[in-house]
Specification:
By secondary structure, this protein is an alpha+beta fold. It has nine helices and 13 strands. β9 and β10 (192-199) form a beta hairpin.
């Protein structure tokens, strides 16, 4: 398969035109991520990979092209959320990887900025326990986030701290010099970001994720950016609803098993 440089991604835009997700738009615009096609002239399908997500668009391949796609998904997307664009792709995944996948639910929120209350968001953003403060994510906080597994997804889709400072947007709850929680732009596209929020385990249940999220949403509203929220759990969906989002739908994505790990477990 052929990987497209950022300057050549116009060839997939019509194929992905029905998608309203930030991550797909970001990759098609050439802002982030990686994209593969089977050929450069009128490709029948494409693969988009950005962060922990993989998206499949177009017509499902057969024969040799199907084997090439299967190999690519093993190499680059085996631990990621593989999102089929329609039922045909879902069937293709199940037929291609029998016994090698799990189905995971995610929770989409409606994209409607009119549901946010700036007064409520401001209240949440200021409701911090003593000893904590919220700061914009800068170069120093970027470096802190990238050092730990729980926090690296806040910034992982930006190649450098300078890239984040130029293109990203986020706020962190700090306790002294320690990063306790953050809410950040996981993906960016024109006029939109995809939110990533999290809290270090020993600082959970203190309202830090709520405060950071509220601060980021306020910043987005001030700048005319829509902060898209796609939840990986019912708990995250509940947090989104508290901030003013409206639940849209539950949907399913696929994850390929770590086959080596599975075999180790079977032998144990």
């Amino acid at each position: 398969m052929i990987e497209l440089g950022r300057e050549k991604r116009q060839i997939i835009r019509e194929m992905c035109s029905g998608a309203d997700g930030v991550l797909v738009r970001s990759a098609a615009e050439g802002s982030m991520g990686r994209v593969w096609v089977p050929e450069l002239e009128n490709p029948a399908y494409c693969v988009i990979h950005l962060g922990d997500f993989c998206f499949l668009f177009g017509i499902c391949p057969k024969g040799e092209q199907a084997m090439e796609l299967k190999s690519l998904l093993y190499r680059h997307c085996s631990h990621d959320f593989i999102t089929p664009s329609d039922e045909r792709w879902a069937e293709w995944l199940e037929d291609t990887f029998p016994g090698e996948y799990r189905i995971v639910s995610r929770y989409a929120m409606k994209q409607d900025k009119n549901n946010f209350s700036e007064e409520t968001l401001l209240k949440y953003s200021k409701n911090l326990p003593e000893g904590f403060r919220i700061k914009p994510i800068d170069k120093r906080i970027y470096e802190l986030a990238m050092k730990e597994e729980w926090s690296h997804d806040f910034c992982t889709n930006y190649e450098t701290a300078e890239d984040y400072e130029r293109d990203g947007l986020g706020f962190a709850a700090m306790k002294g010099r320690h990063l306790a929680a953050a809410c950040s732009a996981y993906g960016i596209s024109r006029g939109m970001i995809e939110i990533k929020v999290g809290t270090r385990k020993d600082y959970q249940r203190k309202g830090l994720a709520l405060a950071c999220s509220a601060r980021l949403i306020l910043a987005c509203l001030e700048q005319g950016i829509y902060p898209s929220w796609d939840a990986d759990s019912l708990q995250a969906a509940s947090l989104a609803e508290k901030l003013g989002y409206i639940f849209d739908r539950e949907y399913q994505v696929y994850q390929l098993f770590d086959l080596d790990l599975e075999q180790q477990l079977l032998r144990a």
